[in-house]
Amino acid sequence: MQTSTTTEKRSLFSWWDLGENLIDISDYQALAKRRLPKFLFDFLEGDAEDGFARSNNAQSLNSVQLMPQRLVDVGEVQTKVDYWQERASMPLVLAPTALTRMFHHQGELAVACAAEKQSVPYVLSTMSSVALEDVYAANPNTWFQLYAYRDRAISQRLIQRVVEQQGRVLCVTLDAFEGGNRQADRRNGLRLPFKASLKHITDAARRPKWSADYLRGEPINLANMKEVQAQADGTSLFEYVASQMNPSLTWDDIHWIRDSFPGTVILKGLLHPQDVLKAKALGVDGVVLSNHGGRQLDHSISGFQALQLLPKGLSNDIKVFIDGEIRRGTDIVKAMCLGAAGCFVGRPYLYGLAAHGQPGVEAILDILNSELVRNLKLIGCASISELNAGLVMARET
Ligand SMILES: Cc1cc2nc3c(=O)[nH]c(=O)nc-3n(C[C@H](O)[C@H](O)[C@H](O)COP(=O)(O)O)c2cc1C
């Protein structure tokens, strides 16, 4: 009798309080889908062309299995890691994402505060919808992601502003000088600057809470770029900034950035092992092996595969992060076993943000942390630093 009453109560509860039984990233993904207009959820999920690069990101992680060791004392486990002058609560970094206020009116500020509270780094995008000064005021440990522009004066000014905020880490993204062919966005008529079509208005009308928040907030713009508005000369700021993306960037520009920024410089969007060797030779401090979440070059290898192509021992000399479909504590464990310094995540925290604002981002971090702790125990390692290549093997095909 007792059992049946409990079951009845539970099912009634979960029926009307549908969104609240959120135990993993996919639950937040489903909730974000219910909260955001379709064209925006499609933008968040977006991948290039046929989506092979994105699906391969997940498949490559699944192609490695874990070999736990037994009878190790894992009563207490340690997930903390050191990134240059900082201590992080776990080897996880919130990746840069553009125009985050589109997903929730608090946007980058909510993400920065969640990261500060849970002691993980957050990388603010150049293309953020909140100015970098406001984000540094909320979280002084923020890292800044830079796109290096055709006009060096624009990049120089951004670097100077980061230095003025005492920003310590600059993350230069190298794989987005040309927009990826995201066909869902093209089908949805989504382009910047955003001009609402009948389809967008119909999509938004189905999501009244999102629409009310969106209409209440400041118009969304490239908040870090207001200073160059005057140079836009009749075109919109978005068009001007897009025209400044630089397909002619070379290692000389990286040399220049390395010399211009007094702190830590990491390069994001590398995949080729030779490029990692060049980055190291140039005195860069770290790299993020990434295919931009499969949003740029379809059929590109994943960051996880690129990690396995590095010459042995290289990751002892330069910090190597990876990203792409990191969704579980076991994904982080696999990357760390193979020598990664940590994992970036993009879409997962945007799901949390779209669902519940700052508490949603915190919940995503909690989920990944508790999975990491549990999986460290189950694999038989008392500390992140004990993870090693002997604990993984390739799945037989
Ligand atoms: C909506 C969205 C916007 C993004 N904007 C940027 C950006 O401004 N700069 C950048 O370097 N990467 C950007 N990225 C890529 C992420 O930093 C990261 O490489 C990618 O999301 C990792 O894959 P994951 O989403 O599967 O975790 C963006 C990704 C998404 C989903």
Automatic annotation (TrEMBL):
InterPro entries the record matches: Aldolase_TIM, Alpha-hydoxy_acid_DH_FMN, FMN-dep_DH, FMN_HAD, FMN_hydac_DH_AS
Cofactor: FMN
Active-site residue numbers: 292 (proton acceptor)
Residues of the FMN hydroxy acid dehydrogenase domain: 17-397
Sorted UniProt keywords: Flavoprotein, FMN, Oxidoreductase
GO cellular component: plasma membrane
Binding-site residues for FMN, renumbered to this chain: 96-98, 125, 145, 173, 268, 290, 323-327, 346-347
Residues that bind glyoxylate: 147, 182, 292, 295
Signal peptide feature range: none
Gene Ontology terms describing biological process: aerobic respiration
GO molecular function: FMN binding; L-lactate dehydrogenase (NAD+) activity
Family, similarity comment: Belongs to the FMN-dependent alpha-hydroxy acid dehydrogenase family.
Name assigned to this protein: Alpha-hydroxy acid oxidase
